[in-house]
Amino acid sequence: MIAYPRRQQELRSLVQRLGVAQLDAINWNLMDLALIHVTFSAERNYEQLEFVGDAVVKLAAAEFLLKAYPQLKVGEFTALRSVLVSDRILAKIADSFGFDRYLLVAASAKSDPAGRDSRLADSFEAVLAALYLSTQDLSLIRSWLDEQFQPLAEEILADPARQNYKAALQNWTQGHQKTLPEYRTQETGNTHNDPHRFVAEVWIQGRCLGQGMGRSRKAAEQAAAQEAFLVLSRQES
Amino acid sequence: MIAYPRRQQELRSLVQRLGVAQLDAINWNLMDLALIHVTFSAERNYEQLEFVGDAVVKLAAAEFLLKAYPQLKVGEFTALRSVLVSDRILAKIADSFGFDRYLLVAASAKSDPAGRDSRLADSFEAVLAALYLSTQDLSLIRSWLDEQFQPLAEEILADPARQNYKAALQNWTQGHQKTLPEYRTQETGNTHNDPHRFVAEVWIQGRCLGQGMGRSRKAAEQAAAQEAFLVLSRQES
Lengths: 237, 237
Fold this sequence. Notes:
Two copies of one chain form a homodimer. The first copy, chain A, contains ten helices and three strands, in the order αααααααααβββα. Chain A is mainly alpha-helical.
């Protein structure tokens, strides 16, 4: 039980907004912890939960995608998931639930808008960890989180660029940065038809923005381009 | 139920070797799938399970580390986990259970030793996913996997280098490659004491081998060096 009844009430109201029905199953101490930033308390904050939460959100996204789109190729699952669990998307979801109102942050940190997105994404992951650890499964998470993921996944999949990501990525970098993506591709084995035979990285302005594997050089580069394109195009929206 | 009694028997024997007690809880179709390489069947193989399994193993490792070493700093959790879930370690664990004997692979792929480690690691992740999906929790996984992680974590933590990873990494690259690690460090915000204020990458021979965050430039670079050092030094053993 948390010491302050008002905090307890606030946390209940957040959890209800998320759409979690079984309030009795929740470990409220963990939920409290999940919404304390390190600048508010150096000893008692969400950092450990966030460490668990990044795996929880990846697992939840994987299960959602397998169920919702059983026909997709594995490369597409990976690219879609990397967008769904990106800081940008998680911050957006957290923001839509008004996480800002529940997160305890030092005033000095609040005045730093650059950190806002990462605080929102991190505390969102921590909340997912608190819910996961309450029951040791995803039963408090999947129903409402799937609803958040669904329209985002539809939007990404509806994108006509996804048929040819190398071309889409090149258009994007030429339009935005007057540069071309650079591919670094290696052959890791010599087995015909092995989907891991080629490994590609795509570099843009000195940063590796995507990685991919494939049966051919071209397939690996398409997979890398897909990841980079989805990350970049989501950052814009 | 799987069509071939002999395969069923083999899978049961593997699961018993792992140390899973509740055989009745296992979805044997998934377990079968987890041990089929894409070169054996392009339609029915472990690729989708592997996609789920990489999140399952991260989650299992996170829970193990939090329970076994509650006193560690978050940066240390992250570095330790990145070693525990690395392909190299997962392949080693899979190998110790004789996964090679159970994995269905085309002869052409078997003759490619370069792919062996990644096949072992990937099928290990797929088996974890099959066990996770059988019960929708980690109850068939944690007990025996924790026992695998424990001595590995002890070994990593006993390493005297971990007090100063920048120095340890420099020694390593000078000794092995006659090069120096290169740090690329950015200030992402200006909040005093924010553990994400600085983000560092460490580059060795054109590859980014570690990333880290910290309250100071030095702390972020130590965290990045730690990740790279642990990865490189594990590759040696």
